[in-house]
Amino acid sequence: MTMIEESEARIGLPRLNEPAPAFEAVTTHGPLRLSDFEGSWLILFSHPADFTPVCTTEFMAFAEIYPELQKRGAALLGLSIDSVFSHIAWVRNIEEKTGVKIPFPVIADLDRKVATAYGMVMPGESKTETSRCVFVIDPQGVLRAMIYYPLTTGRNMDEIVRLIDALQTADANKVATPANWRPGDKVIVPAPTTTELAEERTGAGYECTDWYLCKKSL
Amino acid sequence: MPCVRPDGTLSGSGRSMLEAVQTEMTAAEVVVKIGMPLYLVRSGLREMIDAGLVSEVGERFSQTEKGAEKAQQAS
Fold first, then answer.
1. Fewer CB atoms near the end CB (10 Å): N or C, chain B?
2. Closest Cα in chain A, distance from residue B65 (Å)
3. Which domain holds residue B51?
4. Which CATH number does the domain A3-155 belong to among 1.25.40.80, 3.40.30.10, 3.30.390.10, 3.20.20.70?
């Protein structure tokens, strides 16, 4: 086992609702720290490699949702185990060939420090590339959601925007969101934790399937 | 964005940031003044503090004497 592999085996994966691992990294927009994003939502995502086909479609798609994320106070930050020169050449190539400008910074994680801290390398899939990971970090620096996709499968950008909407709605209203929820749909009222609260549900004006599954409009 | 080039001259965003802190202000106020994202303003101000162009007192940033000279040269 190499030193890098030993280090990765020791560190393991980050966990939800715990502080996101801090980092300072070289990016296409200069050196950035996780703490630079404090106060805004951050979507940290990794891709396997520059100048590869699925990643190119994903970068174009991330650029497309960038304005929607900005409206929601969320920043984007990409990452792969490539040099900053490779990143610069690739984002320039994307703009030259497709007209799509990549507006967000991309981490050049050549020493794999960030990839290791976030468990982005899946050795069963590739020992040299990061998988397609997405980490949603809230304005307090807490890791709130993780999505992992394999090398073969480009991510669904609608789901990333929907996830931000759902987390922000849950935080603002102390509710949960049901399967396939979209903004404007009814939300789930937290289940009662005592028999008294369960009885009080009756007549509370919620749309209830049963005492434990009640929805309301916002 | 890197604000200070290896030869010590300022990039466009570096000039904007340095001019903004001619009067003392917070990073959030710099964002409003120059329209750059907060994370880039924080990173840029840190870089200019390291270069001795900006000082920070209680989360408020302002030009140092060296920074004022640099801003004058750049304008």
1. C
2. 25
3. 12-68
4. 3.40.30.10
Q: Is B50 domain-assigned?
A: yes
Contact criterion met (CB below 8 Å) for A144 and A168: no
pLDDT tens track, chain A, 218 positions: 555 555 555 557 899 999 999 999 999 999 999 999 999 999 999 999 999 999 999 999 999 999 999 999 999 999 999 999 999 999 999 999 999 999 999 999 999 999 999 999 999 999 999 999 999 999 999 999 999 999 999 999 999 999 999 999 999 999 999 999 999 999 999 999 999 988 888 778 899 999 999 999 99
**Class level of CATH domain A174-216:** alpha beta
CA distance A40 to A140: 8
Full-model pTM:
0.91
- Chain A hits for B3, Cβ within 8 Å: 30
In this complex, do B38 and A39 lie within 8 Å of one another by their Cβ atoms?
yes
**What is the bridge-based pairing of β-strands A187-189 and A106-108?**
unpaired
Contact status, residue A188 vs residue A177, Cβ threshold 8 Å: yes
Pairing mode, strands A187-189 and A213-216: antiparallel
Contact B42 A36 (CB under 8 A): yes
Query: How large is the ipTM?
Result: 0.89
Confirm whether B42 is domain-assigned: yes
